[in-house]
Amino acid sequence: MTANRAFQEASPSLFGFVPAEDDCTPVPPQAAPPGKTTRLPSYIADHRARLRDRFMQGGAGAMPDYELLELILFRAVPRQDMKPIARRLLDRFGDFNRVLSADPTQLAQVEGVGPAVVTELKIVEAAAQRLARSRVINRPVLTSWDALLDYCHTTMAHGAVEQFRVLYLDRKNVLIADDEQARGTVDHVPVYPREIVRRALDLNASAMILVHNHPSGDPTPSAADIDMTRQIVAAAGTMGITVHDHLIIGKSRELSFRSSGLL
């Protein structure tokens, strides 16, 4: 077996979302003086049009992170220059992926970020996770390993706290459930082997893959990680359930217990 990744989807609520409008649509009457309409300033409208054209012609690879964020935020705030907000988000969280995966309460602490911006970012995050999930769900995991790793990185690599997930497989190694067992702190997550095995029995699962992230970015396992894995393997083994692997997801790479000789 080789490296890895993980899943789950948490669809953000769309209630309260500020609908997108055409950039030059007149402001509603209550927002403008009687008898007058306000249009988007031409320099902002032109900037938005140029970004959209560049994206359609060259794709995301032709754009730095802050411009891709601008494109996303255009829908959340139809009549404002979004470059300052995009740059503040990147300054606060470090990169595009960490912006999308940031906790909503932390996003809201950034100057200029309101509910509409938070909702838009979480919609994009959910869409990315659902796309990655569609490539592995109900498919034989061991023959879709790269897709599984992509999914795990998409959902876990940029988390601010540790989370522990279990991927449950049937007798044909088809993924039948992806459970988040627990969330913890920046360097610890509580794990209960009995609960993991009980859930496997409830699902009639024949095998499982353990996955957790290291918010530090370094997927090197700790002594506690190794000990906990052995406890789960032993508990599962008594019930005839196989643990195929334990994956630790870092920021840019992952570690496989099986490939590293730890399982």
UniProtKB/TrEMBL annotation:
Alphabetized InterPro entries for the sequence: MPN, RadC_JAB, RuvA_2-like, UPF0758, UPF0758_CS, UPF0758_N
Keywords from the named record: Hydrolase, Metal-binding, Metalloprotease, Protease, Zinc
Database matches in PROSITE patterns: MPN, UPF0758
Molecular function per GO: metal ion binding; metallopeptidase activity
GO biological process: proteolysis
Name this protein carries in UniProt: DNA repair protein RadC
Entry keyword Zinc-finger: no
PANTHER family xref list: DNA REPAIR PROTEIN RADC, UPF0758 PROTEIN YEES-RELATED
Domain MPN stretches: 141-263
